[in-house]
Amino acid sequence: MEHSAVEKAYLAGFVDGDGAIMLHTSGKAYIDVLLSISNTDFAVLKALKELWGGNLLVDKVYNPLHKPRARLRFSCRAAVVVLQQLEPYLKVKREPCRIALQFADTINPHYRATGVPPQILDLRRNLQKELKKLNRRGVYTAISIPMGKEAKT
Question: Could you give the C-alpha distances from 110 to 8, 9, 114, 127, in angstroms and in order?
Fold first, then answer.
């Protein structure tokens, strides 16, 4: 389903602010694209789920001082379809999106029968390392995005 520019920009804002784009390893060798948006406003996440799909998960609260939180998750093909639509609207998560989509381009149904060629496996591992580095916690250089009056000049 194709969404309007407003719907894409709205979801992109959530992904930029509260989202994570990952290449998740399940099992020994299987890697898939994962998009997750966390927020404490369940109504907003439910509305996004109705519009975009995905799975809504409620996280367990371990600290009574913390508000309950939920995650809207898209995995595998669903994550790729959403990221393809959001890519032009993302600011902060544009590079992780590019890496995830580049990874998705290496997926080929023929590999199930023939096996994944070694050069594709190496590319996938390098993309996963690059994305992990971008997603690493700690101090990193923020990008500068012109806002307001600055953007018009």
Answer: 32, 35, 6, 21
Assess whether pLDDT exceeds 90 at residue 97.
Answer: yes
Give the span between the Cα atoms of 75 and 58, in whole angstroms: 16
Q: What is the sign, positive or negative, of the torsion defined by CA atoms of 30, 31, 37, 39?
A: positive
The end-to-end CA distance of the chain, in Å, is: 36
CB of 113 closer than 8 Å to CB of 74: no
Contact 80, 61 (CB under 8 A): no
> 34 vs 69, 119, 132, CA distance in Å?
18, 23, 13
For 9-48, write each residue's pLDDT tens digit.
Answer: 999 999 999 999 999 887 666 788 999 999 999 999 999 9
User: Strands 30-39 and 55-58: what pairing?
Assistant: unpaired
According to DSSP, the β-strands at 70-75 and 55-58 are antiparallel
